[in-house]
Amino acid sequence: MPCPTSLPSWARLQAFSTQQPSLKDLSPFRLQAEDISADLSLQPIGSDVRGLLANLIDEAHVPAKRDAMVRGEAINVTEQRPVLHMALRASSTGPAPWGADIAQAIATQRERFLHFADAVRDGRIVTSNGLPFSHIVNIGIGGSDLGPRMVCTALGAKAKNPLPVFFISNPDPWCIQDLTEQIDPLRTLFIVQSKSFTTQETLAVFSTLKAWLLSHGIEASKVMQQFVAVTARPDLARTHQFEEEKMFVFWDWVGGRTSVWSAIGLPIALHCGSQTFKQFLAGASTMDKHFQQASVHENLPYWLALIGIWNRNFLNRTSHAVVCYDWRLRLLPAFLQQLEMESNGKSIQVDGQPSKVKTAPVLWGGLGLDGQHAYFQMLHQGTDIVPVDFISTLGDEPESKDAQINKRIVDLNLQAQKQALAQGRSLQETVERMRVEKISEDHIHQLAIHRSYEGKRPSNHLVLRNGLTAFSLGQLLALYEHKVFTQSVLWNIPAFDQWGVELGKTLAKRLEGN
Ligand code: F6P
């Protein structure tokens, strides 16, 4: 397993880190992966650096590692597990390099939970009083919350007859109170989502909400009719009396943060319908094909990973912002935070040796327009340079004139920010501008420096060019998953465990015992 610093091109890249090209002089660098157009031109990467970065992919054996993942080898070495989220979204009639048994198990569960979702939506599955369910509540945390929550939020605006879904990840009494004020105890279906079925927060919310139903007159013998379990530990779910037909399983080879493609996606199917969920899987599957088939020079996941490596390891950028110019994507940064930071926030290599290079940067972000009036000051003039991924959508805005005008405001702001970050405004230009504004020479002397922008602040721009659909959202999430995987191989760290979160859990349990 090569340590990154031993890769021939890694050493050669070091020499370029002090001579960055101006962001004004670079030739365009655009890639297309399915419905996603990526403008990667505003990165301080000249042709020499680009060539050396591309070499890293083969030098670190990324394609071989990817193929080992697809074959179902136990690439999650610290837990001795395969990593097969790609199998979850593959067509059930296509090739199954992970084996027929796994393909069959996936198809069976998928069919079961999608059938269940449609039956609840159609009113064929009803409450114990024969009423259709009016609300869904997702109880879960981390990967059992962030993925379905983000996807429901992103796709809800265009969903036909959306069944309202609430997400609760937190047993904080104020959070429970907030939820219970909004739902009808007699007509709500609760999905307890937990891969391990041992997560303290999730089990606490489950038990509190079950007690709440009982306190609202639901008979003890009927209360579990309102609960569904989604888990990789059906044995543990059974100890809580879930009904067999209301249990959906997935497997230990699905990571929590990549589980949205499994039955953990049930709230999406309940909110938007099974067809939408199938489109979401199909979109991800097309990105899987791109990841497996596109050449190094055209492979978008590779390039998001390589650009991240360049910024992190050679230019010492400590954080990375994901800024969305589509309100529907407002929860994407929180989802990506878990995906990137829980996967690659590691300091020990796969071989147990300490990492010699920096790994995952801090990922943060939000909605662009709101950010412009908050943290963009720091992006433009702060002492740290923060590479940004701008994400926007094209072509599915409502047709009304007002909608068109407002969408233009959103898009033009993105263009302006991208340009301002990259090009800045020199002191001389600022002085000239202030003179045009008829500002006194005294004030110009005092203020021009504060009103100048250094520029040279890099960004990527990803555009969902056929709008935000289940299909394109599936592609976008799979793109980031493959970026994270590629970076983990380049850094030689294990991406699919999360031992770092265990100590705090153990201490919390110990404190509870005291
Ligand atoms: O504590 C971290 C973590 O294990 C995540 O990896 C996971 O997504 C989350 O907790 C929830 O875990 P579970 O689905 O087992 O309840």
Task: Briefly say what this structure is.
The chain contains 20 helices and eleven strands. With about 525 residues, the protein is an alpha/beta fold. The strands form two sheets. It has a six-stranded mixed beta sheet with strand order 1-2-11-10-8-9, with helices on both faces. It has a five-stranded parallel beta sheet with strand order 4-3-5-6-7, sandwiched between helices.
What does this structure look like?
- The chain is of the alpha/beta class and 514 residues long.
- It has helices at 8-14, 47-59, 62-70, 85-88, 100-122, 146-155, 173-180, 200-215, 234-238, 266-272, 274-293, 300-314, 332-344, 368-372, 376-381, 401-423, 427-436, 441-447, 470-491, 502-513, and strands spanning 30-33, 36-39, 135-139, 165-168, 188-193, 227-231, 247-249, 319-325, 362-367, 388-393, 459-464.
- Strands 1-2-11-10-8-9 form a six-stranded mixed beta sheet, with helices on both faces. A five-stranded parallel beta sheet has the order 4-3-5-6-7, sandwiched between helices.
- Helix 11 packs parallel to helix 19 and helix 12 (300-314) crosses helix 19 (470-491).
- The longest helix has 23 residues, at 100-122.
- The radius of gyration is 25 Å and the shape is globular.
- The model has no long low-confidence stretch (mean pLDDT 97).
- Bound molecules: 6-O-phosphono-beta-D-fructofuranose.
- Residues 141-144, 194-196, 199, 202, 256-257, 342, 498, 501 line the site of 6-O-phosphono-beta-D-fructofuranose (F6P).
